[in-house]
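Researcher: Please translate sequence to structure tokens.
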Amino acid sequence: MKSAIIGYGSIARTHAQIIKEIGSIVAICDVKFDPDTKTIPECPDATCYTDYKLMLDEVKPDIVHICTPHHLHAEMIIEALGRDVNVLCEKPVCIKYEDIDRILDAEKKSKAKLGVCLQNRYNSVNRYIKEYLKDKKVTGGCGSVNWYRDKAYYDSEEWRGKKAFEGGGVLINQAIHTLDLLQWFCSMPESVMANITNMSLKDVIEVEDTANLFCYGDVDFNFFATIASPKSFPVEISLRADGKWIKVTPNFAVIDKELVTFENCEKYFLKECYGNGHKALISDFYNCVEKDIPFEIDGKEGTKALRIVLSAYESHGEKIKIK
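Model: Translation complete:
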């Protein structure tokens, strides 16, 4: 299958590395490319573009990977689906509530598929826990993301830390993957109460570096996320199911005091924070496109955690219904 990439930053290089193993990259678009650039050394067979619509029209790829800053995702998804091009988009698919409905409408009208890159669902530990829970009654959960990001991180990309471009801070960027896992294990909540603040980056970013959420539904759970930690620590999720305590980390799980380990969990692509699920997710999406079968993390599924995040931003410490 012919693949194209829009946006060629660090996460796009992860996508490119994997695509080379299962497909063919025929075009790459980035507004920062010099107009005279025809190809790049990493992908010598791919034609370079600075206009993604022109690329879609001329190349007519089977699949396009959207790896641009957050605020650009919605329009790019809609334009690609409108051309019946299958879309695999990095999270989040948008930063505004109203764009969720626009994207789902475009997905419904298109002959193509939409997939959302929530790759941690493909981590071996998380797949194991999801299967383990299928005949269990989950009664509660909690999760935490304690990471460190500094001024240099935000200065490295002009869109980072700006409300209009990123849509928020730690919740919509770093922590959305773990929040997605929590609702995947516990079920989608109906309401949320959240407090968000900027603890350590007040003069650096416009958005939150710390958030505390309480989510209410069939299974209640709470969630804490910060990038103001003195160091970055592994993500953790704890669950109660059938009276047992379950601890979930990126590399192992503990079920009722019994350690469950997995091979190759510590291997990751390019950056540790990306985890090791991209290859499995991308391969699965390509398989679904080729066989014309449903992809697990489609528009509806891929916006569940996003709906929680956007509602949390509107909570201001009050319990509100998730839209």
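Researcher: Any highlights?
Model: The domain at 2-119 is CATH 3.40.50.720 (Rossmann fold).
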